[in-house]
Amino acid sequence: MADLLAGKTALILGVANKWSLAYAIAQAFVREGGKLILTYQGERQKATVQELGQELSPDTEVLACDVTIQQELDNVVNTLRAGHAKLDVIVHSIAFANREDLSRPFVETSRDGYLLAQEVSAYSLVAVARAFAPLMTDGGSILTLSYLGAVRVIPNYNVMGVAKAALEASVRYLAHDLGPVNIRVNAISAGPVKTASARAVKDFSKMLDGVAANAPLRRNADPAEVADTAVFLASNLGRGVTGNVIYVDAGFQIMGLPTAAQEQSHDR
Ligand code: NAP
Predict the structure, then answer these.
(1) Residue 130 in contact with residue 67, Cβ under 8 Å?
(2) Which CATH number fits domain 9-267: 3.40.50.300, 1.10.238.10, 3.40.50.720, 3.30.10.10?
(3) Measured between alpha carbons, how far is 10 from 87 in angstroms, rounded to an integer?
(4) Which atom, in ligand 1's list, is nearest to the CA of 121?
(5) pLDDT of residue 84
(6) What angle do CA 4, 9, 15 make, to 5 degrees?
(7) 179 Cα–ligand 1 center, Å
(8) Which of 1, 20, 108, 191 has a C-alpha 20 to 30 A away from that of 153?
């Protein structure tokens, strides 16, 4: 691979472990010569993320940032300013909803559960863009991770689908606001991948099986494929792309009827 991100610094929020989509993205960014700043949520995660950061690249910086606490966002900004850091890329790979809201009918979602999912999974992109865009003094690329549940009903995805709809709309409004300072804002809508967050969705393995059986490529997307699309969006190759949602899902999103159903009707 070429050094597509040489000389660029990327702030990546959402590395929890080696299965995190953000970790795959961090690996691809290092491969392309990018410098990393990782964040973690809460002391409990500090040592793990520091260790992962060191493994990825010895010059990785690791900072605390719970996106629901404005003071923590401000602290990261102040630390980066003090070190005269300029950001080129921001990866927002964060979501959370109460487990019970990802298993019972959507109609039973509580007010608190709805607002929590919106705050962590959608508003946080706005908070992050607001806080860090001033450090992107040469322009740059902000990207977030979404899922098909934003635009179609995926059983059990529920309140998170509504949060992803708000996230994707936020991408468009942020792209409009930040375009004049040459900051691009996009989402990657990834197919299902077994991660800690994904396991909270009831019957998640059925989603994986459904994609493998019905997607045009007849398989699930790989985290490395999501990461390579992130490299494209973060690099100069993506310079004309903003306000977009790019699907990296083995093509599943184009299907109207399940492939299996079509094959059965051909057999008749
Ligand atoms: P993950 O490894 O569990 O990553 C989710 C991250 O969000 C974790 O690092 C988590 O930190 C962090 N987070 C949650 N609340 C936070 C807060 N208040 N402040 C800061 N960080 C917080 O799972 P993932 O699947 O890679 O998820 C990353 C993104 O990809 C999410 O937006 C998810 O919706 C999206 N996505 C995932 C899939 C999939 O199938 N896996 C598909 C499409 C899109 P802690 O672990 O410390 O709580």
Answers:
(1) no
(2) 3.40.50.720
(3) 6
(4) 32
(5) 82
(6) 100
(7) 26
(8) 20
